[in-house]
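Reopening: structure tokens for the zinc ion complex, inputs below.
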Amino acid sequence: MGIVPACVAQVALDVPLDMAFDFRLPPGVSATPGTLVVVPFGRTQRVGVVVGLAAQSQVPEGRLRDVVRVVDDLAALDEQTLGLLSFCAQYYQRPLGEVLLTSLPPRLRQARRRRLRLPEPHAAPPHVIPDTAPTLTTEQADAVGRLRQHLGQFRASLLHGVTGSGKTEVYLQLIEAALALDKRALMLVPEIGLTPQLEGRVRARFPGERIALLHSQLGEGARAAEWVAAQSGSARIVLGTRLAALAPVPGLGLIVIDEEHDASYKQQDGLRYSARDVAIRRAQLAGVPVILGSATPSLESWANAAAGRYDLVSLTRRAMPDARLPRVSPVDTRADRPAEGLSNALLRALKDRVARGEQSLVFVNRRGFSPVLFCRACAWHAECTRCSANLVLHREDGRLRCHQCGLARPTPARCGQCGSPDLAPVGHGTQRLEEALHAALPGARIARVDRDAAARRGAVAATLAKLAAGSLDIVVGTQMLAKGHDFPRLTLVGIVDADAALYAADFRASERLFALLSQVAGRAGRAGTGGEVLIQTDFPGHPLYAAVAAHDYAGFAEACLAERRSASWPPYAHLAILRAESRDKALALAFLRTAARIARGLGSPVEVFDPVPAAVERRAGLERMQLLVRASSRQALQPFLARWREALDQRAERRVRWALDIDPLDT
Ligand SMILES: [Zn+2]
Ligand SMILES: [Zn+2]
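Re-run output (same inputs, fresh job):
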């Protein structure tokens, strides 16, 4: 121990170590927990967050380095945000420094950057055309009345509303009520749900408010500016995707989680957090209500409502006068064999709509032209050399692409195995359906919306604008089209190739399929015109399709929950997955075998499965394996995970990359 320094800052940095580093605060420089500082790190400098202060350090005087400077154009992270982020670090088993730093926009993590210009309080953009609240339906008014009572206290409510029932209007009125109490509101939407349409609606309703918009598609400068607008309190409404769940919002009064069942709320790498679960925790810490909205709630939330942990508020009818839920019928594709993906029944229905000047949506959850290129002579098919995945044919540019790793190569003229030129695309993607529709319905105005189309800047927005303006007859698309859009003239939805998901191995597959089909079906007939949905299937009698047709979420959920209970899957159990990847499969497997042995040796009340290959076994040249553990409660799982991780940290094997995934969505 050297001479006692005047003051020592304990600084968390984004390093893979669960510890804080001591730095000397130069005389006259002060900091509090949450202050951002620039510190020397090796030969470079880094931004860190002060997590503690001490009178002296264990680090010998000669080796204790000075804080370079305090970041003074940004306020310290407040206590509530620090509390939330520490909770995340602990719960998701990640180093605190990593969590604190990755919660900041990339620009604010840079040790050298230009000074920020702080936003003007409440400055709203000038070009918004204000919009007034519509008259609520009785159900909506009841919902607003009930939910408003919770302002000022923690309460989780599940707003279960059928598609088109006007959930967004309920959120907007509650946000208004929170603002009237001089509180701020945080609204989370899934990645795919944050459409210009929704953003415009929020802006139009609150024309005088500065709204902070937080999502990963923003440029670095804009993202930092929006984050600062949230942190400084200049914005009273914070609207964003999952990363907004971690942004500081002072004087928070309300949290809304739209489409709470959506898988994009779960981060799939680094801090693998569930923004929904974190937001609920946040509401609890802040003592404010949280509203989870969905037409097809996650089974976790539905079970919470059934158990009385959440309030259940239902909207059972569509909000527009005369708008009914669409009529959903299966098309038996064993009898009506689709040619080029389209059954006669669907084609007839499409023709009718085109003739009547109504719009249709053809949904297939697969982009590209065809998912497999087969050799008819020897049954060889094109596979990615780096992944265990088929290469998808994209005819626009004549390339085969891997949807896992992005590998692209020219379409071969001959079979890679026997040399036969007889190569056939099998299965239908969006591009192939678009082509088939052009051929079958000459003259119809057809467009496509999927990730390939979205790669061209503004292309999707332009298509959606055309659809809204009525200058399109048919749009072909993936789940990008499934939610968040209102097209009054859209009266027909055709669903192609949904069957594959019926028998997927993942225990969540049917929950996801039901939600997806209900969302897509929900696009039809949202205004007064009656909507129709045709599902092409080889299994027209399948109970899942029957439940979609009956718009019977509750019945479907109860049947699913009964299955989950008997098989001990969530929400009746809690899971964690240890994921490992390596160039060498044997190493990944050996690592997981050791991990399983350690886990079993800890004597915790958890069930440790055997290592298995991941769903996509090889991706970008890495072999991927996983190990599942299951516990009856979080209280049993959490202490086990902490001990397990500590033991695994000590076995670091450089050639194996591993990570814990708590409450995984993909098993
Ligand atoms: Zn061949
Ligand atoms: Zn690949």
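The domain at 8-109 is CATH 3.40.1440.60 (GIY-YIG endonuclease). The two ends are 50 Å apart (CA to CA). Marking as resolved unless the reporter disagrees.
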